[in-house]
Amino acid sequence: MSMDMQGAANRADEILDQVMGEIKPAVQWAHGPTSTGRCDVSRMRVVMTVVSEERRGSLLGVVDRFWRQSGYRIKAVNRDVDLPAIYAQTSDGFGVTLSVGGKGQAFFEVDSPCVEESEVAESTTPPNGPSYDGVYPLPRPNVRDDFWSAGAS
After folding, report:
1. What is the C-alpha to C-alpha distance for residues 87 and 57, in angstroms, rounded to an integer?
2. pLDDT 10s digit of each residue in the chain, 153 long?
3. Torsions phi, psi of 6, nearest 5?
4. 2-5: Cβ within 8 A, 24+ apart
């Protein structure tokens, strides 16, 4: 596989677009930081929808099933009640993670394998809510949803 860092970033966006498309009803998300290493790229999406404690298992279940059906290898599952996570790997070597952080905020991250060095542009996929350009760190989840936020205080 001959790929440069921009190609890897594009592939990471594609992986993120696919998983976000499987979540019904859709959750609102914003781009997290893109980071580059010596020969790898990471893309992140931060869920801005409040996912209640009662619904976290549903979110993790949808993502776990989709990744398995897509042929991803599930490397580890953290079943922590407050900070659960799923770690998987695509057949082409990209690491994918869904982790739940403070206040139930969900983070999707894709890490590329080592590829040829190149410049990396910001993602061209528009977020499905506010972009929070120039805002760091992003705010805690602040979008209520009848399904995903059910039971959240």
Report:
1. 15
2. 589 999 999 999 999 999 999 999 999 999 999 999 999 999 999 999 999 999 999 999 999 999 999 999 999 999 998 899 999 999 999 999 999 998 889 999 999 999 999 999 999 999 999 999 888 889 999 999 999 999 877
3. -65, -40
4. 2/116, 3/112, 3/115, 3/116, 4/115, 4/116, 4/117, 4/118, 5/36, 5/39, 5/40, 5/41, 5/112, 5/115, 5/116, 5/117, 5/118, 5/119, 5/120
Query: Residues 6 or more apart from 14 whose CB is under 8 A from it?
Result: none
Residue 142 tokens, joined: 């602040």
